[in-house]
Write a structure and sequence with these properties.
The chain has 451 residues and is an all-alpha fold. Helices cover 78% and strands 0% of the residues. It has helices spanning 4-23, 29-45, 48-62, 72-85, 89-107, 115-127, 131-149, 157-169, 173-191, 196-212, 215-231, 240-255, 259-277, 285-297, 301-319, 327-339, 343-361, 366-381, 386-404, 409-424, 428-447.
């Protein structure tokens, strides 16, 4: 109802009460159930720090409870979900596995009660790189739903989405299409061709087609999906999911060379956001930056500059001049000015980006490396001192080696620049080992198979 303060007061009062009960020696199912509800309340509020301490208390209780304890399965599922949200995947997995064993003994291995924990296990396995096991869990869940609800049940949609997304993530694009086709068929049969859910399913299938390299089919599906969703009023025009669909389609159109169509979509995103939020709203920044990128790719740097300055102005007024988020449009503007040969302006902006990022992320962070690389290019154009440029590039190289490894392609490109300046400065002793390393890297990357 929006009354957050009273909610917090109630949670805190109950938390204090249950702590008193536990101090008095009561550590049974009743205390676990109360702590579970309190933890879920704090999760909803977003106070994750206190959730962690509550989960520690909960773990202490449930570890001592027998598996046949009433309501324990529900508490364990909630705990597993909360641990997953907090990033403690090991604990999450233990909870999901325990509740799965409890439910299997109680209801059998083909019960729909198993769906939630099995989906949780699949998600954790997928997040920890155990894709084959995750795939098995999704297939088991789908089989359970098919045998209990039928092969065209709407209840199949969630596990099918999970499986399809996992297959795309793992690069199994040939198999990924099938789950999304099934989802589309289920929704079409249940709700007809013009329902918003059908449009959403089309978008997911378009994403799978795109991953498979079928760009033209993906574009047609995206276009139909957006039209169905709009005609059915399934979601508001300014909904973030709707905006993402337009952006995904716009990026795809740009990728296949249909730039004007793609840009028209990005302009629509901007107009819709202006209409719903107002011209100075921070939500305008993303569509402005997307449109600026489109114009930059078409080498219309003048229009790109106007859009970038507008986004920068909005961000400055909303987050202040020193917030790290402001450095991203600022760096884009510096690059844009570089292309317009306004190098002194570009240099000042790049230096400001460097200052903000060093303070926000640390001097050896990847965002700082990106700013240094840009600054080095601008200073090269301006004919700055070679020793200064070499020092900048060496900093970039150290950062990239730590982030991407000593054999990364990004590292290879920076070594080329460092070798160039060492040669220019006549520092042969430093140049020769780097030249040998560069030759080895070139050979290594030449032998790589690129998909």
């Amino acid at each position: 109802m929006g009354n957050k303060n009273d909610a917090v007061d109630l949670l805190q009062a109950n938390f204090e009460a249950v702590k008193e009960q536990m101090s008095a020696g009561d550590k049974g199912m009743e205390e676990a159930a109360i702590l579970d509800v309190i933890a879920l309340g704090y999760m909803a509020i977003g106070d994750f720090e206190i959730v962690e301490s509550i989960l520690d208390m909960l773990s202490e209780i449930v570890d001592c409870l027998e598996d046949d304890e009433l309501l324990l399965d529900s508490v364990l599922i909630h705990m597993a979900s909360m641990y997953s949200t907090l990033g403690n995947l090991e604990k999450s997995m233990l909870m999901y596995q325990r509740v799965t064993n409890i439910l299997e003994r109680k209801y059998g291995k083909n019960s729909t009660f198993l769906v939630t924990p099995l989906m949780g296990i699949a998600k954790v396995l997928g997040s920890t790189g155990r894709a084959i096991k995750a795939e098995e869990m999704y297939h088991r869940t789908i089989t359970i739903m098919e045998s209990n609800r039928g092969v065209e049940s709407e209840d199949l949609v969630v596990p099918l989405y999970g499986l399809g997304n996992l297959l795309i993530k793992e690069g199994k694009t040939m198999d990924a299409e099938s789950p999304f086709i099934r989802i589309l068929n289920i929704y079409t049969k249940l709700y007809g061709e013009n329902d918003g859910r059908v449009g959403m399913a089309m978008c997911s299938l378009a994403h799978a087609k795109c991953a498979k390299g079928k760009a033209d089919e993906a574009i047609v599906l995206y276009q139909r999906a957006i039209q169905v969703i709009m005609d059915s009023n399934y979601m508001a025009l300014d909904d973030s999911a709707m905006e993402k669909m337009r952006i995904d389609l716009a990026e795809l159109l740009h990728a296949v060379g249909r730039v004007k169509e793609g840009r028209k979509l990005l302009e629509e995103c901007l107009l819709i956001m202006e209409q719903y939020k107002g011209k100075g709203h921070p939500n305008l920044v993303t569509p402005l930056l997307n449109l600026a990128t489109s114009y930059s790719q078409s080498r219309n740097f003048v229009e790109a500059e106007r859009l970038l300055r507008t986004s920068l102005d909005i961000m400055t007024r909303n987050v202040g001049p020193d917030d790290q988020s402001i450095s991203f449009p600022m760096l884009s503007l510096a690059v844009n000015l570089f292309h317009l040969n306004r190098n002194e302006e570009a240099e000042q902006l790049a230096l400001e980006v460097l200052r903000i990022r060093e303070e926000a992320f640390g001097k050896d962070s990847l965002p700082v490396g990106e700013a240094l690389d840009c600054l080095a290019s601008i200073k090269t154009r301006l004919g700055r001192d070679d020793d200064e440029l070499l020092a900048l590039l060496k900093r970039v190289l150290r950062i990239q080696e730590r982030e991407f490894g000593r054999d990364g392609e990004e590292v290879m490109e920076t070594i080329k620049k460092v070798v160039f300046y060492l040669d220019k400065l006549g520092r042969k002793d430093e140049k020769l080992p780097l030249q040998r390393r560069l030759s080895m890297l070139r050979m290594k990357h030449k032998q790589k198979v690129h998909y």
